[in-house]
Automatic annotation (TrEMBL):
InterPro entries: AB_hydrolase_1 (IPR000073), AB_hydrolase_fold (IPR029058), Carboxylesterase_BioH (IPR050228). Residues 24-266 form the AB hydrolase-1 domain. GO terms for molecular function: hydrolase activity; kinase activity. It comes from the Bacteria. This is Hydrolase, alpha/beta fold family functionally coupled to Phosphoribulokinase.
Length: 275
């Protein structure tokens, strides 16, 4: 069931809080929402699964586009934990969510019990950022869910052997049928994050200190083998700095894996057991 709480600036933030056990806060990709974790939820075992829709995405209120930053979204995440009375939580962060996890490691490490980063690291590939910049904030040309599902199958780089039913499920999660075409289910003004820094939205030039700040916490990394955002070189450097990090690469997946693939599930289970 979707619930809401009110952030410090009055924005209503949507979340789901399900299960019991170690708290795991799920943070999705830049334009996405908590439904991203529907695929992984059955594989996480006995955890308290908390899923937040960022401001401007999913069932949360749209807000001042100037607040669509990693720093503000991290504050919202901590406010949600406070609202729920959760002192410490592990973060399962996909793409943007992984950036927020690293930022919280730097600024609020005492609130974290671990982090699993999904297809994200301290260096972002220019190729992948260009792809995101090309579609963010734009409604699809396709007029039906099936058409947009087929379009996504063609557009998304690095994906193979994905059933058509999965692409249709993805379309239904991330687009709204208005009766007169489809629209994105997030604030189109989210595209403004590229205005000031066309290469790396809302991120400083060097965020390796963010990653290093996760030292001492149970850490995992899942990479799509064909990712255009997280390079093999960056993943290798992350492993060098954290040789204890649980790592898995998912074949036939680009940015980002669905997280129900066997390779992803193995990492998630190993990570959850370490919390």
């Amino acid at each position: 069931m979707i619930q809401h709480f009110t952030s410090i600036d009055g924005t209503k933030i949507a979340y789901r809080d399900e299960g019991a056990g170690a708290p795991v806060l799920c943070l999705s990709g830049l334009t996405r929402n908590g439904s991203d974790f529907d695929y992984s939820a059955p594989h996480l075992g006995d955890v308290r699964l908390i899923r937040m829709d960022y401001r401007g995405r999913g069932a949360s209120d749209w807000a001042d586009p100037a607040s669509y930053t990693i720093m503000t979204e991290a504050q919202d995440a901590l406010a949600l934990l406070d609202h729920l009375g959760v002192g410490r939580a592990a973060i399962l962060g996909t793409s943007r969510g992984g950036m927020i996890a690293m930022f919280l490691g730097l600024t609020a490490k005492a609130r974290l019990s671990g982090a699993c980063l999904v297809d994200i690291g301290p260096d972002l590939s220019r190729e992948g950022l260009t792809v995101i910049k090309g579609y963010i904030g734009k409604n699809p040309v396709a007029k039906s869910m099936r058409d947009v599902a087929l379009a996504r199958a063609r557009m998304l780089n690095g994906f193979a052997n994905v059933p058509e039913a999965r692409w249709l499920e993805e379309a239904q999660k991330h687009f709204v049928d208005t009766g007169d075409g489809l629209r994105i289910n997030y604030d189109p003004d989210l595209a403004r994050i590229f205005d000031e820094n066309a290469d790396a939205p809302a991120a400083p030039p060097d965020i390796w200190p963010w990653f290093d700040a996760l030292g001492g916490l149970p850490l995992a990394l899942i990479r799509g083998a064909n990712s255009d955002l997280l390079s093999r070189e960056t993943a290798a450097e992350m492993q060098r700095r954290r040789p204890d990090m649980v790592f898995g690469e998912v074949p036939d997946r680009g940015h980002v894996p669905f997280l129900d693939e066997p390779e992803a599930v193995a990492v998630l289970r190993n990570w959850v057991e370490s919390l």
